[in-house]
């Protein structure tokens, strides 16, 4: 088995991207050349593509549908977040899943059953989201709390791009939305959509938002899109740092840390248990052991996202200790493990 190199365990050396993520909404791009717009946004550094699907009924505008998204999917591997502003998403959800959307967010205000659609999205291995309009209380999410991975807060009335940001809605809802994702140890996201730009990024970052949907601000003629994306991310992280994190810079989302070092059998067991709780785990040979040491006897490092370290420690530190004890000292077979 070829040796796998792994990141250093020094948290400061791991990755450098920001906590906040930017999802480029293509609603204000050139819809006559949408593939080029998506490729441009990817090239300029956006983290995701936000796809606003409107049916002319749920909102007073009409955009594109699943066939367009499926055609775009072939042009890029960047994540697609579909925001279905349509009256009956349950009728069409299979088409959007088949189109290759990585997440699908529907509105809590629709007049059809919501739970079956959320379950179908999750059963397909995609992230399921619920969105609330500015006048809809967050309490409308409560019946579906355990079924959602994303809470999207609209800070404009949905339907058209380029509207003014509703500061009062942002302050009232964004930070409060986090409690509806408390069931997720890792991966739950609060999205903000509407009027997000360099003037509002610091405010929403200070409300703990994970994904900033940015539309018209990226597509202004003559504007440097890459710089705008970097600026919005930096301002959002600055807001988080000084309003929520006591002046401490936020942990970059891609940073990994070593959660434990165990023999292979125990490492695999702990990985299964941690991943079952929703925290991703990477398993690597420990560099502390000789390169030619038997894989079943040597130690293995479990790496998890740094942002999930606290939750993992709280829930699995005791279990990690049990498995460390079962593994036995270096050079001896672990419990239940025959000698190499």
Report on this structure.
Helix content is 29%, strand content 18%. By secondary structure, it is α/β, with parallel strands linked by helices. The strands form two sheets. An eight-stranded parallel beta barrel has the order 1-2-3-4-5-6-7-8, surrounded by five helices. It has a three-stranded antiparallel β-sheet with strand order 9-11-10.
Shape assignment: globular
How would you name the CATH homologous superfamily of the largest domain? Aldolase class I
Which residue ranges are poorly predicted, with pLDDT under 50 across at least 5 consecutive positions? 1-16, 333-340
Instruction: Using the coordinates shown, work out and report the CATH topology of the largest domain.
Output: TIM Barrel
Instruction: Compute the number of helices.
Output: 9
- Beta content comes to 15-25%
Count of discrete domains: 2
Overall mean pLDDT stands at: 91
- H/E series, N to C? EHEHEHEHEEHEHEHEHEEH
Counting DSSP E segments of at least 2 residues, the number of strands comes to 11
Distance N terminus to C terminus?
A: 16 Å
Radius of gyration (CA) equals: 22 Å
Largest sheet: 8 strands, parallel, barrel
Could you say what the CATH architecture of the largest domain is?
Answer: Alpha-Beta Barrel
Describe this protein with a few key phrases.
alpha/beta, 11 strands, globular, TIM Barrel, 9 helices, 8-stranded parallel beta barrel, disordered N terminus, 3-stranded antiparallel sheet, 340 residues
Furnish the topology, listing elements before pairings:
Elements: E1 21-25, H1 34-43, E2 48-54, H2 66-73, E3 80-85, H3 89-98, E4 103-107, H4 115-123, E5 127-132, E6 150-154, H5 167-173, E7 189-193, H6 201-205, E8 211-214, H7 225-243, E9 256-263, H8 264-276, E10 282-285, E11 299-305, H9 309-327
Helix pairs in contact: 3-4, 8-9
């Amino acid at each position: 088995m070829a040796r796998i190199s792994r990141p250093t365990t020094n948290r400061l050396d791991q990755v450098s991207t920001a906590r906040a993520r930017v999802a480029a909404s293509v609603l204000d791009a050139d819809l006559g050349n949408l593939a080029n717009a998506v490729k441009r946004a990817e090239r300029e550094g956006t983290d995701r593509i936000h796809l606003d699907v409107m049916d002319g009924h749920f909102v007073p505008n009409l955009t594109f549908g699943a066939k367009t998204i499926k055609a775009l999917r072939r042009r890029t591997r960047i994540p697609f977040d579909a925001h279905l502003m349509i009256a009956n998403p349950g009728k069409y959800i299979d088409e959007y899943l088949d189109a290759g959307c990585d997440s699908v967010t529907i509105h809590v205000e629709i007049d059809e059953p919501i739970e079956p659609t959320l379950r179908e999205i999750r059963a397909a291995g995609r992230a399921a989201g619920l969105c609330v309009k500015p006048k809809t209380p967050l309490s409308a999410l409560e019946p579906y709390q355990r079924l959602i991975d994303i809470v999207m807060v609209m800070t404009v009335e949905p339907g058209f791009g380029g509207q003014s940001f509703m500061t009062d809605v942002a302050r009232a809802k964004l930070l409060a939305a986090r409690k509806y994702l408390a069931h997720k140890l890792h991966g739950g996201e609060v999205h903000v959509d509407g009027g997000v730009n360099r003037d509002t990024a610091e405010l929403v970052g200070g409300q703990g938002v994970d994904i900033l949907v940015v539309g018209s601000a990226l597509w202004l003629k003559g504007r440097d899109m890459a710089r705008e994306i970097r600026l919005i991310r930096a301002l959002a992280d600055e807001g988080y740092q000084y309003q929520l994190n006591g002046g401490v810079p936020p942990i970059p989302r891609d940073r990994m840390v070593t959660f434990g070092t165990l023999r292979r059998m125990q490492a695999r067991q702990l990985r299964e248990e941690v991943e079952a709780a929703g925290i991703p785990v990477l398993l690597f040979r420990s560099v502390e052991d000789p390169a030619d040491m038997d894989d079943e006897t040597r130690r293995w490092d479990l790496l998890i996202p740094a942002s999930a370290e606290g939750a993992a420690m709280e829930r699995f530190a005791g279990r990690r200790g049990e498995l460390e004890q079962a593994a036995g000292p270096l050079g001896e077979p672990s419990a239940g493990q025959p000698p190499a």
